[in-house]
Amino acid sequence: MIFYLTLAAEVSAVFILLIFPGTGTATDTPPNGIMRAPGDFQGMVLTEAAIEATITAGKFDEVFFKAANLGPEVQPVWKELDAKMGGQAARKAAVEKFNSANRWRKRGLWSIPVKYARGNREREMVKMKISAETGVVTVSASGIEMGQGLNTKVSQACAMGLSKLSPSVSVDVSLIHNTGVKTTADFPAASGTSGSGTSESCCDAALKACAMVRKRISLLHRHFILKTIILPRQARDKHRESTQKRERRVFNRS
Hints:
Blueprint: E1 5-11, E2 14-20, H1 40-58, H2 62-68, H3 75-84, H4 88-101, E3 126-130, E4 137-141, H5 150-162, E5 176-178, H6 198-253
Parallel strand pairs: 4-5
Antiparallel strand pairs: 1-2, 3-4
Helix pairs in contact: 5-6
């Protein structure tokens, strides 16, 4: 197995970049590690250890110090979550009250802010077919189902997207048939299933496919109304008008 390890972490205005240059190595067995992903988790643990050491050495308030060292893009999310959970101060007071009232049982309060970088690198695709006889929707996504629920999410996304055809339309997820067998021949330009974003990218592709289907059905619907309702009505009105004109001419002559 060939692998490389790069650890990077961000702490407020100080950017800590730790690079462990790796050499490609082929082994007969998988390497021993805590997880199969790259060095994200190790970088998070190392950054948290550095922050904890700074808090201990400087005797800072841990909640304030951690919040102050969040990135600017994380601050709004952190504040919103803190407000929804009642605030750190109130929870810390509740912990201290519990600990003072219980000699043997103790509680603690801990928070570890983590930012997982997500990019726009997934290229996922969806194929969709709708049966004119049964209305069953067959969908196939380029992502691979490996227990994360990708196929279920895509089916739910299709049901939600097609239900937007009309306020009176509700497509049940049981009408969505997801094909499990997939090949690279069907999706030659798709990216790999990795990075915790394939399911969401496949769902986005499914919603875009549903939008295209809704647009085409809307055009067919307007054409159907025009051909079966509006044009026949206009023809009837024109025929009625011409008949009335002939009747008026006959009446005037008499």
